[in-house]
Design a protein that fits this description.
It is built from 51 helices and four strands. The chain is an all-alpha fold. The strands form two sheets. The chain has a two-stranded antiparallel sheet with strand order 1-2. Helix 10 runs antiparallel to helix 14 (335-361), helix 44 (899-913) runs parallel beside helix 46 and helix 47 (965-980) runs parallel beside helix 49. The longest helix is centred in the first third of the chain and has 27 residues, at 335-361. The protein starts with a helix and ends in a 5-residue tail after the last helix. Residues 255-272 have a biased composition (Basic and acidic residues). Residues 347-527 form the DUF4042 domain. This is HEAT repeat-containing protein 6.
Length: 1103
């Protein structure tokens, strides 16, 4: 380093001295000095200090101003070398270079006749745009000048006097400049004209020099559903309808060489086996333009395979005949042509790299407006296929360029789920126009077809990996449940051979694709059938595709797995065989590697291991976890075997294998939990038996799981193991041996004191799961230990730990209420008063935290206040804590917190009202609580919050609990207003809750009427006089609704509703008898009229 510092200083000093010696009027020497600067800086990669840089830049700028034009190219080359990675140090020279009359702006102008000079200026400008980490970037004004300059260069056309290679270098420099602006300058493309102009030139450059293709582009693209402009040169217009595929059967004459332009490279003898060669590539290019009207047929034709493997239909021989070669160039051409092609490929790669950066700079919703300009759509009959990214992926002779195009397509597809979700072609649309949903569906189908064509044609392993990754991205985002079936079947069958490919990256990406298939919108019937197919997989040791004849898209619908088999499946295979994918993943994970699959790839040192390469095993574990998650009903047949796989992985030394083993264990545990949920659709006899689950967890707890949980150097592994332990089935836990139960609890309580926030959060959550287990929640000591552990985590500095702890505290307080109702006084007396006070204070403090903590803290507060006994309320130590906690709940109801927090707070106040020991109706906080709930029930934008507040207002069981007449009437009036506003909402999504809201308000109103006393009647009469018709119609609807489960989770059948109304009538009759006769009219008679109308409407008569 010391030597190089001296070398750099010496070089810089030499260059400065040379400039001092050579005066600007010695132009020949100026040229030589600039050449010296250029070559020295490039060869030695010298870092020029700021002082010398300023001197050398000033020299070059002065030389450009004073010297003759013949020296300018050499001077600009020196300038480009000087400013390279030195942009932030050049600030004071920017006005001279990029100002309104800046030198670089002048020399790079489209009017500049000397292309070499223009190229050198653009290169200098591009080097100025390079960013240096931690250093300020170019000002916005300079960035705008550079962007417009680069854009005008890319928009310019090559004139006849310009050399092809020079023009390519000019385009490359402009593309690098734009990429630097997008990446280093964090440039955000917002304006439509700016985006459209850039995308237009990028699309033009993406196809620059691509053999057999010539396109003209407008100056700008505009967001549109269909391609706005896509015109190819008439001379090179491709024939879109090969004779072999014409529906009419007419053969038509084929012009000499009309398909020759389709090939990526010069083709050899047509009789040679075209395995991944030019003939195959040509035929694939032509298939892309086949206008076969049935997209299913086109996609199924993707099954074409290398010749000599297995004779297919006449389609393949037709392709072979069509692709007889007559290329524009021959193999014997000299180096000039080869060099030119290389430079043209560099332009295409530069445009694609720039496009990749542009995608990151454009909002996805804006980008998808240009979808049709870059993503293929199925061509109409007689029309050519539009050029797209897939054109490059299928036809470009450069593997690197093909890979770049696929990377860009992947970036477009990434995060496109919402955009693609509108696609729908499951039903035949017979309309005069094509709906947008069908257009997008057609595009998705065409993408599948083209990518599968590319898969068969590709010879480069690196590009093959990109194709498969792109397919995985497509599969992850496409809405298959809305599309005609068959797409996934074709992908599934064609990817199978690549599992045994010689390149490990191809094998890993193939597994990624299979993982995407089993995880997308799981469970899909089509995938379920694929998983049920016998394990004849079509693999061979060479990794090349084995031909399949695809069945009709309807076959997946049939229940019998044999209907979905390819015809070359071995005879006698039945669906009782293990699932092919499951067996494949397990064999890769646990079996020693075979010689036939050996890899020589030096990138993976683990290849010396007895097992398959680590990346392959990790991907297999992930696929297995996704399979278990999405299709547990299939995986449960191998429940214990998969448990053994997880065990073996957790016993290994590699932490990444252990981690994914723990994740597999968690998915297995979660799958069983889902089966035993109360609302599960799985029949009891179809579930994994509890005895098997007990055996499974016994194996885990006697195996590596305890050791993994205590593996403190690997926090992520501990976290996953903790999550896995929390997925145990409660019924299975209660059947474990006592020492194993103690082991689980001890481990979790210990991990709750971990210094790592991830581990601590996972332990806190797991304790919140265990506290609900029936065999543990009645143990006062366990509840107390868990409460102390959770309260400790509730004060942690990590927000994630506090959020998990608050959730667990909510569960723990739910347990207190359950125990109070089932065990009675005994549990309440045993539970520590001090601990209860601590819980109340901690929950109150947590209710002031961020929303994720607050939502469960208020839930816990409601439960604790419900749990308090008269002795606690009378205790002076509790008095202040109770008051603070109530104020926290009231303020949360009225706050601007998230809706989940507010409806939990309303629910919590309802819980508080259930405690008869609290002075409800007497204490000052009562008025505040009722006022807050009354305000929310009338005006909150969220209907679920209104429902919870109406429910809370209907909970007090005595009239005294509602306080004074004034307060009672305010609540009544608020509920009447809320009933009238129950359909007023600006958010359409809230409208679906309006019926539940009216149900809850009607229950609350009838409840109040059944408790009303004589002093309340005047206000009740007045309200009924003003709004009687509206109230009556809503109550009638409430009575008619029958059995309905509202948002409060209350089931009220027709009889209960009638009984509530009759109870209110009887109660009011009794009160009004004591008053004057006229008082009876307004309320009791009104309700009797409502009941009579209801009886008349339902055909019932009172006895």
């Amino acid at each position: 380093v010391f030597f190089f510092c001296f070398l750099f200083q010496d070089v810089c000093a030499l260059l400065v001295q040379a400039c001092q010696l050579v005066h600007l009027d010695q132009e020949h020497l100026v040229s030589k000095v600039c050449q010296l600067i250029h070559h020295s800086l490039n060869r030695f990669q010298v870092m020029v200090d700021e002082q010398n840089l300023n001197f050398l830049l000033s020299y070059c700028i002065s030389a450009l101003k004073q010297c003759s034009s013949w020296t300018h190219v050499e001077i600009l080359q020196a300038l480009a070398a000087l400013v390279y990675n030195n942009g932030p140090k050049c600030q004071k020279h920017l006005p001279d270079l990029l100002g309104q009359a800046g030198l670089l702006v002048q020399f790079s102008d489209s009017a500049q006749p000397d292309v070499e000079l223009r190229r050198a200026a653009v290169r200098s400008m591009a080097n100025l745009c390079l960013s240096v980490p931690g250093q300020p970037y170019l000002d916005e004004s300079y960035r705008s000048v550079c962007f417009q300059t680069f854009l005008s260069v890319l928009q310019s056309s090559k004139t006849s006097d310009v050399d092809d290679i020079t023009f390519c270098m000019l385009l490359q420099n402009a593309l690098k400049g734009i990429q630097s602006l997008l990446n280093g300058g964090k440039m955000k493309l917002m304006q439509t004209d700016q985006i459209g102009s850039l995308l237009a030139v990028l699309k033009k450059c993406m196809f620059h020099g691509l053999p057999g293709l010539s396109i003209e582009m407008p100056t700008a693209l505009y967001p549109a559903l269909l391609p706005q402009y896509d015109k190819r040169s008439p001379v090179k217009q491709e024939q879109s309808e090969p004779a072999a595929f014409k529906q009419t059967g007419s053969k038509g004459k084929q012009k000499k060489g009309e398909f020759a332009e389709e090939g990526r490279e010069e083709s050899g003898d047509a009789g040679h086996e075209p395995v991944l060669g030019a003939d195959m590539l040509k035929c694939l290019g032509d298939v892309q333009n086949s206008p076969c009207s049935d997209p299913q047929t086109r996609a199924s034709d993707v099954a074409c395979v290398p010749a000599g493997k297995d004779p297919l239909s006449s389609h393949y021989t037709n392709w072979k005949r069509i692709s007889s070669s007559e290329s524009e160039y021959s193999d014997a051409e000299g180096g000039i042509q080869s060099k030119m092609r290389s430079y043209q490929a560099n332009v295409r790669q530069g445009a694609l790299a720039c496009f990749l950066s542009a995608i990151k700079s454009i909002e996805k919703r804006v980008l998808y407006g240009y979808w049709s300009a870059f993503v293929p759509d199925a061509p109409g009959i007689g029309s050519p296929q539009s050029v797209s990214l897939m054109t490059i992926a299928l036809k470009d002779p450069s593997p690197k360029t093909r890979a770049c195009a696929l990377q860009v397509l992947s970036a477009i597809l990434e995060g496109s789920k919402q955009f693609l979700s509108v696609a729908e072609d499951a039903n035949d649309h017979k309309r005069a126009f094509t709906p947008f949903s069908v257009t997008i569906a057609s595009s998705i189908r065409e993408l599948h077809r083209c990518l599968l064509l590319a898969l068969v044609a590709e010879s480069s392993s690196q590009t093959l990996t990109q194709i498969i990754k792109c397919l995985a991205n497509l599969v992850s985002n496409a809405p298959y449940s809305r599309l005609k079936p068959g797409l996934l079947t074709r992908v599934w069958n064609q990817i199978k051979p690549y599992i045994s490919h010689k390149d490990v990256n191809v094998r890993v990406s193939s597994l990624t694709l299979l993982g995407a298939i089993v995880s997308v919108q799981a469970p899909l019937p089509e995938v379920q059938l694929l998983l049920q197919q016998p394990s004849s997989s079509g693999l061979n040791s060479s990794g090349s595709a084995t031909p399949h004849r695809f069945n009709s898209s309807e076959q997946w619908r049939k229940a019998l797995p044999s209907e979905g088999e390819p015809p070359d499946n071995a005879a006698g295979c039945t669906s009782s065989e293990p699932c092919w994918l499951l067996r494949l993943c397990v064999s890769i994970i646990i079996l020693p590697r075979e010689d036939s699959c050996s890899d020589s790839d030096a990138n993976f040192p683990a290849f010396s291991s007895v097992y398959e390469p680590c990346p392959l095993r990790l991907e297999s574990l992930q696929v297995l976890a996704l399979l278990v998650k999405g299709y547990f009903s299939m995986a449960q047949s191998y429940f214990l075997e998969l448990g053994e796989v997880a065990c073996r992985c957790m016993e290994e030394m590699d932490p990444s294998i252990q981690l994914h083993g723990a994740k597999l264990l968690e998915e297995l545990g979660t799958g069983v939990l889902q089966q035993y949920k109360p609302d599960s659709a799985v029949a009891p006899d179809q579930r994994v038996p509890v005895s098997v689950v007990v055996t499974f967890w016994t194996m885990m707890l006697n195996g590596p799981l305890p050791g993994t949980l205590q593996n403190s150097p690997h926090a992520t592994l501990q976290t996953s193991a903790c999550d896995a332990l929390s997925s145990i089935l409660p019924e299975a836990f209660s059947n474990l041996q006592n020492e194993q139960q103690i082991l689980c609890v001890t481990l979790l309580l210990g991990l709750n004191h971990s210094e790592n926030p991830l581990v601590k959060a996972a332990a806190a959550r797991a304790l919140g799961v265990y506290i609900l287990f029936s065999c543990l929640r009645q143990d006062v000591m366990f509840v107390a230990d868990t409460a102390n552990a959770i309260l400790n985590s509730l004060h942690d500095k990590s927000p994630n730990v506090r959020a998990k702890a608050a959730w667990s505290l909510g569960n723990l307080t739910d347990t207190l209420i359950i125990n109070m109702e089932t065990m009675g006084q005994s549990f309440q007396e045993e539970f520590s008063d001090l601990l209860l006070l601590k819980m109340l204070r901690s929950a109150t403090e947590a209710s002031k935290d961020r929303d994720k903590v607050k939502s469960n803290a208020v839930r816990a507060l409601g439960n604790v206040l419900h749990f308090l006994q008269p002795c606690h309320i009378a205790n002076p130590r509790f008095r202040e804590a109770i008051e603070e906690s109530l104020q926290a709940l009231i303020s949360t109801v009225q706050s601007e917190a998230t809706m989940k927090v507010r409806w939990n707070a309303c629910y919590a106040l309802g819980n508080v009202f259930k405690n008869p020991a609290l002075p409800l109706g007497e204490a000052p906080w009562t008025t505040q609580a009722y006022s807050a709930l009354s305000s929310v029930v009338k005006s909150c934008k969220n209907f679920k919050v209104r429902i919870k507040s109406a429910m809370a207002l209907s909970i007090p069981s005595k009239r005294e609990c509602y306080g004074s007449t004034e307060q009672f009437c305010q609540i009544w009036s608020a509920l009447v207003v809320a009933l009238q506003k129950s359909e007023d909402t600006e958010d359409f999504l809230e409208f679906k809750y309006s019926a539940s809201l009216r149900t809850q308000i009607c229950q609350a109103l009838l409840h109040l009427l059944s408790l009303a006393k004589s002093t309340d009647l005047p206000v009740l009469r007045e309200t009924i006089a003003e709004n009687g018709d509206a109230i009556g119609s809503h109550v009638l609807q409430y009575l008619k609704a029958g059995v309905e489960e509202n948002e409060a989770g209350v089931h009220t059948d027709l009889c209960e509703r009638e009984r509530a109304l009759k109870g209110a009538i009887e109660h009011l009759r009794g009160i009004e008898k004591q008053q004057e006769g006229k008082a009876r009219v307004r309320v009791a008679l009104y309700l009797e009229g409502v009941l009579a109308n209801h009886a008349k409407a339902t055909g019932l008569t009172e006895a």
